[in-house]
Amino acid sequence: MAAPDPRVRLPDRTKVRSPIAKISIRFGIALGIVLVNWAMVVVERGGYRDSFDKDVSVFDALYYTTVTLSTTGYGDITPVTTSARVINAIVVTPLRLVFVVLLVGTTINALTSQSRQEFRHARWRKRVHDHTVVLGYGTKGRNAVRAMVLKGADPRQIVVVDARSAAVGAATEAGHVAVQGNATDEATLRRALVDRAAAVIVALDRDDSAILTTLTIRRLTDSADVVAAAREAQNAELLKQGGANSVIVSSETTGRLLGLAPTSPESVAVVEDLLAFGVGLDIAERPVRPDEIGRHALELDVPVLAVLRDGAVLPYDHADSASLRAGDRLVHAVAVTDG
């Protein structure tokens, strides 16, 4: 089984202590065993005999404790009274076993932890397909992921790619698989298994990086839907030529809202409400029902914004929206209520 790639991080289902915390706990237990054993030998040191000078001092007791716990002993200090031998039999020997198990357990835990990670990575690579890859986990990427999860997407079916360790950590904390690396690098995209993805969201900060990344994505897959964010409208066409199915121009959208705000702030509030998924007004999409075929989009019981037909977007008042067809999809507004 191949070693897990440290740049691919799987979400942990349970709270995992840091390696330093694990070592500290084991060290504390081992030290506690040594101190307990040492105290018992000091109390019963009159029942022990030192082959060198006959007397067992406090430091001799510490020496005897460490030697006894780590080995079977050298025979230079031995229990000679019945009480000392009984304590060795019923207390020291179990402590010795616990001490050895603790040391061996640390090694076994390290080995099993490595094997467990290898197994999880191998299983993930084998099972994942039709997932969504989000390139960039900044403001845009994070909100894109949040919207997908609120719409019912499985967090485990979302793979986040970001070069920043903090962003990768935040993604795994949210339950997503994360890959640390440059999104423009083909090797990074391969680690995210872009070639098996159903959709790729390009949410990078720079348009040139987004264009290069889109071209690289299309080298790996022709089937995935690619949605890209652009800061400048002039780069939107380049992204589409590079293979993006749709492009969101953030600067134009922001500019339009800013221009609308002085004269119609309420309209801006409605648009912001529509964009804030999960509260107030939302935009939803559903297929046309059999009883709606042949009807006008404006006659339905939901406020239809557009009709999706054969890859085209028809506004609600378009002439072709006057007669809905089988296979059409409706984009409509919906009010989200609590509970």
From TrEMBL:
Residues 129-249 form the RCK N-terminal domain. It comes from the Bacteria. InterPro entries: K_chnl_dom, NAD(P)-bd_dom_sf, RCK_N, Trk_Ktr_HKT_K-transport. It is a multi-pass membrane protein. SUPFAM superfamilies: NAD(P)-binding Rossmann-fold domains, Voltage-gated potassium channels. Keywords: Ion channel, Ion transport, Membrane, Transmembrane, Transmembrane helix, Transport. It is found in: Cell membrane. The keyword GTP-binding does not apply. GO terms for cellular component: plasma membrane. The keyword Ubl conjugation does not apply. GO terms for biological process: monoatomic ion transmembrane transport; potassium ion transport. It holds the Pfam family TrkA_N. The chain crosses the membrane at residues 23-43, 86-111. This is Voltage-gated potassium channel. It comes from Jatrophihabitans endophyticus.
